[in-house]
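Appendix B. One record, verbatim.
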Amino acid sequence: MSLSYEVAFDENFDWVLGGKLPGLRGGTNATGCSGGDEPTGLDCFSTRLMWRPDGAGEVYAYIPTTSAFCQESNITCNPDFGVSISRGSFTFVSGEWNRVTLFVQLNDPVTTANGDLQLYFNDQLVISRQDLQFRKGSSVDIDGLYFSTFFGGSDNSWATPNTTHTYYRNMQLWGGANPSNATAVNSTNYSISILAFHEIVLSPSITYHYALFCWSAK
């Protein structure tokens, strides 16, 4: 499945410590794999994007991990939260549109870490992994858009000092019942346009914004 959208941040956007952006998810636990709810491999997974200080970007995932995986130089594991994949491999720019395309293909068989994750930033491949384990059981499928955007983090040190905005446009989702035979830029059997344009207000008094969209090729 692939998700593509454009996101813009106000001019002079204060990145603070970081925040979440939309991504993909799957599994039977529709509200899990976020907020410190660690995955078992049998319940859910999520792969959202994050910005960090100065706009540094990453894929932020709730997936099963191993000690060897967590020791890799471009992986940051947190036992209480998600996994940062390739932090700083691209940089969000405020005051202009940033285009992202996220591609996820689940590991198959479920016992093998051969899951595929690719991220294109402004149509340039910036993250590519073919060795991930998104699931440990066949009950976990990829079936949803996880639209969340907020500063955080789990405490007030992440909060924005001023009311600010993020903007979204041209959000599209591609997928199919069978594995993709195309790149993450042009992937596969079904597609849906989610929204043309949307503005979200982020303020010190608002904790987070999120919506969960489940999708199925069946």
